[in-house]
Amino acid sequence: MRLLSTIEESATQYVDLIHETLIRARSRDANGKLFGYWPTLFNYIQRNPDRDLRRQQLVLQTERWKSSSPIARWLHLAGWATLFHYRNLRMPKHSSEGQFLALSRRKAASQFGLLSVILGALVQSAWWISVNNLPLAYAFIQPFWYLGFRPIPETMTVPPGSFTMGCKVGRDDVGGACPDGVAATMDVDLPKPCALGKYEVTFLEYDYYVWANGGKWAAPDKYPTDFGFGRLFRPVIFVNWDEAQSYVRWLAKSTGKSYRLPTEVEWEYAARAGSQTVYWWGNPLGTSRANCAACGTQWSDKGTAPVGSFGPNPWGLYDTAGNVWEWVDSGPLAYPWPANLSALPTNNQRWARGGSFDDQEGGARLAMRGEAEPSRRGSNVGFRVCLDSARPVD
Fold first, then answer.
1. Which of 66, 217, 290, 356 could cysteine-pair with 321, CB 3.0–4.6 Å?
2. What is the pLDDT of residues 294-350, one digit of tens each?
3. Three-class SS of residue 272?
4. How many CA atoms lie within 13 A of 237 on its CB side?
5. Distance of CA 231 to the CA centre of its chain
6. pTM (2 decimals)?
C-alpha cells in the first residue's frame, strides 16, 4: 500500500506519492522563498542536501583510520576542511565514527594552539626587530633563541711553542718601517696557549648576548649599530673594550667554560701560526687574501666582510689580518716585557691588533699594534674570544 496525495494547480490535477509530497516544494511565499508541504522537513533537507553523502564518507574514512597502524592513525584523522564538512553530523560518542570525530577535533585544536603560538612569536619578533632596528632575518632567528639554540663562538686549538714577538727588521718592515711602540722584539714561550676564536665575534653572537641580557623587548640602545655594513655573520663593531670584557665574562658564566679576551702575546702567536713573514701567507700583500684598504677586495676601504670570507691561517684562524681591529686583554707596554707575563702592568690605554678594512698594507701587519682608550667604539674595531681550559670560571 502506498499513500497518495492530490493537488490541483492551474486546473490540472497532480497525484504524488506521499513521501515525495513531503519533501517537494509546495510553492513560494510572498518574498519568493520556496516552502514545502512539511516545512520543517523541507527546510532541513534544503540545508543539508549532502548529509547522506557526508555520512557515507565518514564511515569510509573511519574504517581507513581503524585499519591503520597506531603510528599512522594520527595522520589519517580528519583535517580542518573535512571536519567543516562533518560539522552537522551527530554520531553516538561511543561509536567508531564518534571516536574518530572526537580525536580529529582534538588534533585540530592542538594544531590551532601550536599555530597560534608560532604566529604570536612571529608577531612579537616582527615588533622586536622594528623597535631595535634589526634585520628581518632576526624575526625568524629569535624563536630559536627562545628554544635554547645559542650562537656560541667556535674556537681552534693552538699548539704550544715559542716565537719572536714584535716588528722584526727583515721580517716585518714590509710596507714601511716599524713604527714606535712596535720597533722592538722579544722572544716568548707559550707552553699552554689558549684556544682562540676561529672567527671574530659576529653580530649574531653578540646580539644574542644583548638579547639574553635585557634585550628581548625594546632596547635599541643596547644593540650596537652595524654602520650600514650588515649584521648576522659580519664581525660586531662599535663595541668598546669594557663591553668586550662583559661579553666574555657572560659567555664564561653561561657556558661554564673559561672564556676571556686573549692577551697580546697569545693573539700574535696564534695569528702568525708559526710563520716567519710579515703576513701569515708570506711577505707580499697580494690581493684578495684579507680585507684591508690595499687588499683589492669588494670590501676594501668600504666596510667589514662576513667572517671567513678569506682562507684561514695554518692553525685554522680566519681574518687575523684586516677586517676589524681586535681588542686584546693587555695594556700598552714597550718591548721587551718583564719575564712574568701574568703580572703585566695596565693603564688607561688598551691594545687592539690585526688592522682593519680601512688600513693600508702596513696596518695589516701581524706585528702592528693599535692603542686606544678602553671606552672607544668604532666601525673598524671588534674582538675575538679565547678559551682557556686551564683557568677556572670565576
1. 290
2. 999 999 999 999 999 999 999 999 999 999 999 998 766 666 655 554 544 456 788
3. helix
4. 24
5. 11
6. 0.76
